[in-house]
Amino acid sequence: ELPTVIRRESGQTACYFNFDADSSSGGGYHRLLLHAVCQFHGLHAISTSVDTEQKLKRQLIVSGKVFSGPNFKLSDQVK
Question: What is the pLDDT of residue 25?
Fold first, then answer.
């Protein structure tokens, strides 16, 4: 499922990532990894449980003012 991106008037951007709560397909690992990436980049991440469409999901909300980085591709370095 693609994340939902919301840009607020305050200049902050928020991304909402939804993961199946009862799935053993690595959702917990991906949430933990996303928390670590956010901490590294100085973004704020919060995990919550939400009830959507009669199904329990874990939602990770990432917010902050800077969501861009350098234009770097690994394929540019391969020769």
Answer: 65
pLDDT at 34 > cutoff 70: yes
> Would you say residue 57 has pLDDT above 60?
yes
Share of the chain above pLDDT 90, in %: 1
Residues comprising the chain, all counted: 79
Spell out the residues 6+ positions from residue 74 whose beta carbon is closer than 8 angstroms to its own. Answer: none
Q: Per residue, what are the HEC states of the chain?
A: CCCEEEECCCCCEEEEEEEECCCCCCHHHHHHHHHHHHHHHCCEEEEEEEEECCEEEEEEEEEECCCCCCCCCHHHHCC
